[in-house]
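Sequence in, structure out.
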Amino acid sequence: MASLSWRNSAVANASGFVDERFSSVASVFTENFVEDRETGAAFAAVVDGELVVDIRGGWRERKRETPWADDTIACVYSTGKAVVAMLIARAVSEKRLDYTATVASIWPEFAAHGKEAITIAQVMSHQDGLVAFPEDTSPETYLDWRAACATVEEMAPLWPPGSANGYHPQTFGFIAGEVLRRATGKTVGEQLRDLHDLNDFQVF
């Protein structure tokens, strides 16, 4: 089947190609922009070793000044949670961690502001009440491990830990990752490199 060069007036900076068998993929991709669900994005698919879709469009930032390009770096969000959960489970199986232990028993500074009884199990099951950083948190904090952990230390739970569940899109990796670092002496990134030589996976 033929691959068609892809452009679409509904998507700023649209470029790439789509195998005609997968034209519906480009339609769904475009729909996300039309319905204002995307600022910038890229999508690629490989079938039986063949690249069949490779499209991109939009902008790198909310100010819409820099076009999305082939080499635009994108954050990997919740896919990382499974990786960190696996490393936590590995540490538990090695008796370095215990799900019933409190985070504060490993990370004493975490105990501030009513967090002293939060367990590792509550963190891993999104029951600790620490779902997101305060709204005034500087974007630079996300790139500074120590600053992010210090912010967590100063946070108070949004509900009594263990009484409710709320997904942690921002804080999970820092909390679980710092527990791992203190329990094992290695960061998430260092442990991944030890396990699978994942040198291109950028984890602090």
